[in-house]
Specification:
alpha+beta; Ribosomal Protein S5, domain 2; five-stranded antiparallel sheet; four-stranded antiparallel sheet; 5 helices
Length: 200
């Protein structure tokens, strides 16, 4: 899996209909909805703004969605989503603004045009504009006050983000997020120091 770092715009024409694809990096649906509204205001004479997206959540699950925005069912949003899947992208959306050119494309023609528009936009990305997804996991570590700095040092060693620190009468709970590949080594070090932890 991979994700784009930049926004790309690319246009194709099919039988005088214009398909303007915008690939946007994003991590939540609200950003997508907001951008669709902006595109509708930017292109008031456009017939449709169709979309597909894939978002990776904190549990490493992929949430997907699409919209035909008034095009015949299954001719726009799903073809866009299938192309994003095929290229193995997450944390992005492709929004395609269509200007009707006067000639109906038919169901198959629409599917091909939206697929092509999305695919061409993704292919505009340069190698340095794409990053691989690193699977992330959460771990909670419970220590007494004197051991807090040990955990902070281990977190730094394993490039873990400290998401939350909860101070309690009995001690401290630190919630860390780190690359899955780092987890095994970190847990070995925690066990060696007899520190309590669990992966929620």
């Amino acid at each position: 899996m991979k994700y784009p770092l930049v926004t790309i715009e690319h246009e194709i024409e099919e039988k005088r209909s214009r398909f303007i694809a915008e690939l946007m990096p994003c991590d939540n649906e609200q950003n997508i909805k907001q951008r669709i509204e902006e595109l509708k205001q930017k292109h008031p004479k456009a017939s449709h703004v169709c979309s597909g997206f894939r978002l990776l959540n904190n549990n490493n699950q992929i949430n997907e969605g699409f919209s035909d925005d008034g095009e015949p069912s299954g001719t726009a949003g799903m073809p866009i989503l299938k192309v994003i899947r095929h290229h193995d992208f997450v944390n992005c959306a492709v929004l395609i603004t269509r200007y009707f050119g006067g000639t109906k494309l038919g169901t198959g023609g629409l599917q091909r045009a939206y697929s092509q528009s999305c695919s061409d936009a993704l292919k505009q990305l340069q190698e340095e504009q794409v990053k691989p997804v690193v699977a992330q996991v959460n771990i909670e570590i419970e220590v007494d006050f004197a051991q807090e700095n040990i955990v902070r040092h281990l977190a730094q060693q394993h490039e873990a983000n400290i998401e939350e620190v909860a101070y309690q009468p009995s001690g401290i709970i630190l919630k860390l997020r780190l690359a899955q590949a780092q987890l095994a080594e970190l847990t070995i070090k925690l066990k060696q120091r007899n520190l309590k932890f669990h992966c929620p």
